Amino acid sequence: MEGSLRTFFITAYEFLLVALGFLYWGIVGISISLLSFFLSPLLPKKYSKPCGRFLLKHAFVIFVHYLKITGFIIIDDQALNKIQAYKGGAIIAPNHIALWDAVFIIAKIPESVCIMKGAILRNPVLGGGAKLAGYIPNDSTPQMLRAATEQVLQGEKLLLFPEGTRTKKHVQWINDFQGAAALIAKQTQAPIIPVYIRSDHRFFEKDNSLFNKPKFPLRISFEVGTPLYFSAHDTVKSFTETLQQNYLKILSKPHALRRIQKTRI
User: Fold this and answer.
1) What is the DSSP letter of 45?
2) C-alpha span between 215 and 227 (Å, rounded)
3) CB 156 within 8 A of CB 86
């Protein structure tokens, strides 16, 4: 009986902390969006982008600290500091295991320009800060590619998930890569910096219920790989395949947080 009661209180406490996390995003997201609504028409682009990225960085950093303090996650993200050493344009290309991957990366690399769903940019809670920061919507592929290429040529670090969406539940390691990263690398000759994300649970993965509570703390690690360059002998198709094989090779290696294949019933 004591054990059951203890389990009940622990579960209730953890759901309360999850609810507080969502409440934080509701309050902070709306506040940043309102602030962005007033700042956008007043600030020229050279000031609005740093302002938006400053706001998002601090919102993300506070959230990550909250996750750590409450014992939700144990995160090894020190490898992301290596990306700061790269000068000039670059394409930061992580695999995409969960909804909050971009939060962890932007908290460490706030100057990065994120390609994100247009629906999120239009969301009144989440979109205001992203618009102010100059993030790129993916509604129109040609427009997205053109805007992303321009940003990289201007020396920006572009955050792009080669899978295009979160890794699907039935997939062992990663979804098939899309060609956007290779095409931008071809046009800019900028390096693609692989980022390998691992976790011991599929919390916030695609099509996974938020009520499917994992055992906390979640463990998440980030590994930064050797930059890859588009060569004169590559095609977009061949380079995309090379890139995908690189991730499959690294992510399939034995690791404490290696993705486990779910058995279908």
Assistant:
1) H
2) 35
3) no
Beta bridge partners of 224: 195
- CA atoms within 13 A of residue 165's CA, in its CB half-sphere: 8
**Crossing angle for the helix pair 236-251 and 180-188, to the nearest 10 degrees:** 120
List the chain domain ranges: 2-251
For residues 169 and 208, the answer to whether their CB atoms sit within 8 Å is: yes
Distances (CA, A) of 143 to 138, 149, 191, 192: 8, 10, 21, 20
The per-residue pLDDT string of the chain (265 residues; one tens digit each, 9 = 90 and over) reads 556 777 777 788 888 888 898 899 889 999 999 999 888 888 887 889 999 999 999 999 999 999 999 988 999 999 999 998 888 999 999 999 998 999 999 999 999 999 998 888 888 777 889 999 999 999 899 999 999 999 999 999 999 999 999 998 888 899 999 999 999 999 999 999 999 999 988 777 777 666 666 778 899 999 999 999 999 999 999 999 999 999 999 999 998 888 765 544 3
**Within its chain, how far is the Cα of 185 from the centroid?**
19
What's this model's pTM, rounded to 2 decimal places? 0.91
Query: Can you point out the beta strands (E) in the chain?
Result: 73-76, 90-94, 113-116, 136-137, 157-159, 192-199, 218-224
Q: Which two tokens stand for residue 124?
A: 């009144």
Q: What is the CB neighbour count within 10 angstroms for residue 110?
A: 18
Residues in the chain: 265
Whole-angstrom distance, CA of residue 248 vs CA of residue 196: 10
